[in-house]
Amino acid sequence: MWQYMRIMLLAAGIFLVCVLAQADVQPPVITQTYPLIELSARTTYSHVDLQTSGEAVCRYSLTPGVAYADMTQALDAEADRKTFHIYQKGLKSGQRVTYYVRCQGQAANFNTYDTPVTLKIATSVPDPGIHLLMGRAG
User: Is the dihedral of CA 126, 130, 136, 138 positive or negative?
Assistant: First the structure.
């Protein structure tokens, strides 16, 4: 946030505008995450997306409570540095992967809490044709 101070030096006839920067003390807030639903049992590849309230660098851990400085995995960022992605392949039916995300703003101010984002894959359901055959056998 910027504060503007106008100083008019009337005696000299000069109009001068000084811009004073106010310290950015708030870390970026994670405002949206995706996916919000359980994904199909046939999903083998997906991604986690999130957005922040301001420009940031975001990292994640698969373990909760890891400090931002100790997180070694960075999220891929879009050009705006407010939209981020984690790409995950090799997913299997019934799998659940939770990423614990923290972000750091431009003034090196970072989240002190985790934002969990979970990829949850549905458990596969047997083919309905198999149930019909099993029902007739009895």
Answer: negative
